[in-house]
Amino acid sequence: MLCISGGRIKNHRKACMDRKPLSTVNIALINLKRKPLRTGGLILLVSLFAFTLFGGTVLSKSLENGLSNLSKRMGADILAVPYGYEADVQSALLRGEPSTFYFEAAITEKIAGVEGVQNVSPQLYIATLNAGCCSYPIQLIGFEPETDFIIQPWMSNFLDHPLADGEIVIGNSLNAQVGQKLIFFNQTFLIVARLDKTGMGFDTSVFMNLSTAKQMARESERMKAHPVAENADLISSVMVEIKDGYDVKEVANAILQAYAGEGVHVVVAKNMISDISGSLRGLTTYIFTLAGVLWVLAVGVLIIVFAITLNGRKREFSIYRVLGAPRSKLAKLILCESSLISLFGTVGGIIAATLVVFPFSTYISSLLEYPYLQPSYGTLLAVAVVSSLVSFAVGPLASAYSAIKIGRCEIYTAMRENE
Amino acid sequence: MMFLEIQGLSKQYKRGEKAFLAVGSVDLSIDQGDFVSIIGRSGSGKSTLLNMIAGLLTPTAGNIKLEGTDIHALNDKQISELRNTRMGYIPQGSGVLSNLTIFDNVRLPYYLSKRQGDAAGRASFILDEIGMSSLADMLPAQLSGGEIRRVLIARALMNEPDILIADEPTSDLDIETAKEIMKLFARINKSGTTILIVTHELDTLEFGNRVLSMASGRLTEGIQLTYN
Amino acid sequence: MKNRFFSGMVVAILGLLIILVPVWIFPPCSEVIETAAGNMRMKCFWSGQAEIGIGFLILCGGALLIVFKSPLIRLGLSVMLSLIGVLGILIPTLLIGGCEMATMPCRMTTFPALIILNLLMGGFSAANALHLWRQNKKP
């Protein structure tokens, strides 16, 4: 049983060559294209969710990573600083904000004598007014290589000799290489090492031994008076490591009780970290609550839109059934439409988040004022995959009920809808 | 064995509290190659009968056998396959998909089944045969009523059905166009396809080889010009 | 008509944003900075200036895409715009550049924004060119 004329089949190859085959996906695409505004609106909704979920998760993981890095390699249990400058040492450590606070260097030995103290190492902070590589003030940190347990563990290349005069170690964000020379206050210094990325203020700091730092302070006097130039026995802070078995709070109190009168105050590293951790938890909760709300919104809106629009397309779907499409095929078609919306929305949202979170990561880190260290590529990929799956699920979930319901309608009744 | 056998077919609806019998205990046998027209007034139950035969409406009682197969005993997948491969259904009014081009509308049945072959070639051929090739890339909204009806016939022929079922194929058409549509049906019937149409227009009856009348849910042989 | 207006508007808006980034949204450093070692000329300022010029070119390109009906002219315009996008990316990265330190405003905000906008504009124009070319091929 063939053609109407009963004659031979004509060759229609040429006319058919440009025809794309009909498939569930092609039909779904055609249906979506015919209603561009509605389709665009739904895709935008899903992409908004995908953007928030992926972007927010990367943000949250980067903050977690920065904090974990900080607490792992903090080194010091207690930081002794001049009274009134507790917040400044946090700025210097976390954000590399150039700081200038000082007290007598003799305090180092005094603190070393407090019970429970294992190691002490002084640090000297000097802010530059310029640098050859950089146009804004940066933090110069003088430290004692012999006693230091804070900075040297971060170095990415091994130094086979103690840091000599005129030699510097640079933070990871400074665009210079080991072996290169930098000029500060018209003095040339040789870069001998570079730190790993810390996500903290160290990334934009330059490190040198104490005598070089004091020399730097004297040179800077040409522009502006510097306390260290007047008095070479000044330091900014003392890093304290306590002995095993001692309570850090008790040792901190002991230092405070003994030397508060000399203008010394203490910052317990764990407290600083747990304060940051608490704030981060709050931020993370906010991000994921927002993502959760958007997910519910997206699913809710899609359910409503699909229910209304599919109800209005009963006659259209009945035609498919009349032509021999089983219920499963109809459900496939509907799910395909919603999946395409989800897919485009997910891809769009993830790409948009990628274009914001990664190129602007330094800016975001500076705005957040917390340690910010992007996780490994493996973690980022895992986050992308999970975010994509959760986001993609929105469409099929929202249309599942409607897809099943439409298939259960009596075909003849559905055909006569809107007559 | 007859090609299509219907025994004791009934369809009852509920209108509020009252039961309403749309089709009452119909018996019908159709031979392969027959061109059967069922005529009746609006509300006589002819469309209900037709749609039960096409498997689109579940009867309250009775059975419909297509070459021995009771179609309403089949599951959804089986009856859908039957409708796709063995029946060509032409619904009343515009039964085309407005989002697809004429060409895609015609070749759609092929993709709903698991057939292998050149669907595009066959669709192109059928459109050519009914004189609609030039309109292949247009959307249904750009076509007239008569052209849409031809497209529906072309679509129904796509999978080489054993039987073509048409629900009021000439309604809303002028006399000339209606005649052309009926001539097309006659050509299709000549090539061996069984045709079953319902109509309320007497002018269409001359093209078939058998006429039945439907009135108040009951089917009788021949034309009944007065109705009880 | 729809394609003309839509494509032209998208390109014009992106061009306008490229102008606004160095001017107002994320301005780079000023032309010269006073330092202890003397005045330092800031390359990023000149990158920003060049991008303003490029943005203006793109804005005009977007307007022309709306004005011209001929698909071939629009195809040519789209090809040129996608190449301008490449230039817009090369200016802050290779041709002129900017500050060295990652925490400088130009590196943190100005250049990432400009690179992304030029990438989007260039990609969109290339896609538009492809679409117009395919349409032109059809009988």
Q: Which structural class should the secondary elements of chain B be placed in?
A: alpha/beta
Major β-sheet of chain B, in short? 6 strands, mixed
Strand content of the residues of chain C, in percent? Answer: 5-15%
| Rg value of chain B | 17 Å
**Largest Cβ-defined interface:** A-B, 37 and 58 residues
Mean pLDDT of chain B: 87
Q: Can you tell me the overall shape of chain B?
A: globular
CATH architecture of chain B: 3-Layer(aba) Sandwich
- Class by helix and strand content of chain C? mainly alpha
Rg over C-alpha atoms of chain C, rounded to the nearest angstrom: 17 Å
The figure for the number of domains of chain C is 1
Number of strands of chain C: 2
CATH superfamily of chain B: P-loop containing nucleotide triphosphate hydrolases
Physical arrangement of strands within the biggest beta sheet of chain B: 6-7-8-3-9-10
Mean pLDDT of chain C: 91
How many helices of chain C? The count is: 4
Terminus-to-terminus distance of chain B: 33 Å
Description of the molecule:
- The complex is a heterotrimer of chains A (419), B (228) and C (139).
- Chain A has 419 residues and is of the alpha+beta class.
- Helices cover 53% and strands 14% of the residues of chain A.
- Chain A starts with 12 loop residues before the first helix and ends with a helix.
- Chain B has a single domain, classed as Rossmann fold, CATH 3.40.50.
- Chain B is globular and about 50 Å long.
- The longest helix of chain B has 16 residues, at 175-190.
- With 228 residues, chain B is an alpha/beta fold.
- The radius of gyration of chain C is 17 Å and the shape is elongated.
- Chain C is mainly α.
- Chain C has one domain.
- The mean pLDDT of chain C is 91.
- At the A-B interface, helix 1, helix 2, helix 10, helix 11 and helix 15 of A face helix 2, helix 3, helix 4 and helix 6 of B.
Care to give the gist of this entry?
The complex is a heterotrimer of chains A (419), B (228) and C (139). By secondary structure, chain A is an alpha+beta fold. Chain A has helices at 13-16, 24-34, 36-73, 86-95, 107-112, 210-220, 227-230, 248-259, 269-312, 314-322, 327-357, 361-368, 377-392, 394-408, 411-415; strands spanning 78-82, 103-104, 117-127, 139-143, 167-170, 181-184, 187-194, 205-209, 234-235, 237-242, 264-268.
